[in-house]
Amino acid sequence: MKRTGRVLLWLVLSAPAFVSAQIDPVKRDLIQLGYNQPFEGHAPFAGYAFYYHNQPDFLRTNTTLRLAVAPVYLDSELGFVHGLGPRTDFGIGLAGGGFADSYNEIRAGTFRPDESFEGYGAEVSFSLYHLFNPADQVPLNFVLRGTAHYSTYDRNNDTDPAFQLPGERGDFSVRTGLRWGGIEPTLFPALAMELSIWYEGQLRTGYGPYGFDGDRETEEQSHLFWTEAALSYTLPKSRQNFSVRLMTGTSVDADRFSAYRLGGYLPLVSEFPLSLPGYYFQEISARQFVLFSASYLLPLDRSQRWNLGVNAASAVVDYLPGERQPGNSLTGVGGGIFYRAPSDRLKIMFHYAYGVDALRSHGRGANSLGILLQWDLGKARGEKFTPAHPDRWRGWRWFFPD
Question: What pTM value is reported for the model?
Fold first, then answer.
């Protein structure tokens, strides 16, 4: 009972970060929750719970306040619509809190608590958003964002005393990209499309070897390149919903903190979730990858409150050095029951997933159960929103020992 209570508290105190690729024009008050429970092996806790608030006309008609809130973490941006001209907005961001930069070492399908540690961070940012085609229905945006981030690390109860932690450091990053279309920060959006391409360069003040006798290293600089194509559509008469997504990424001088990390089925855990159903959350560390995923919702009753959902994802990866395992192709499948309240304010899904190629002590194959929930406090309806980083987790990752 004590462990259960701590896990429930963890869910309340967790939140991912939303780094918007444009200023969200819609008023929103959303509570999001997700959790994955693996059956095999010992895995780090995988879940999120956060409150997302977006308020246009905050203080003035041309300012928008965006917040992703948890008791131990805050991610915010104050956006100025047309702040640099009729087609150009800008935003000033502030984020920080406990356990935001913690790291879980998962290698060859095994979670290694003795090589894992807690991390705390804070950052400030400046973002510029330029709209090329204001008269068109599908927007094309240019994004430029600069961030200064400070991280410090500490041991948890399981970290090996001989394991040398990374030093505290400052990270400076520049991100730029083009995005056509967008996706709302909601569970199973009815209609959305996106084509985007991104680059991010990271420069660190504290870098060098760490771990057991310096067996791993933090790079001085890393460069990430990724693209996404996504479509979500709902058939007008039958209300069947399907979505497909293709994402590719590569990197130069990636390390454990900047590599692409794939695994789990938590669709709102990060800006561009790299989901592989049935795998541990962030189980796979990749230098480059190709990921294709698809999902389908079939209404089971006339009111369309109850739906059958199925999904699948497959990836081809080039592992980060030191994180390699046999086989470069990874597939996961899943299905569950999805309930939508009559007002559409509450959405909840109970989900089963099977990691076909997940490496475990018995061989290949892993099972997990999960839950996804969205509670719309304001019953908002929106047009466009997309964040812009493939893999940045926020929240309390390490408060509870496994």
Answer: 0.89
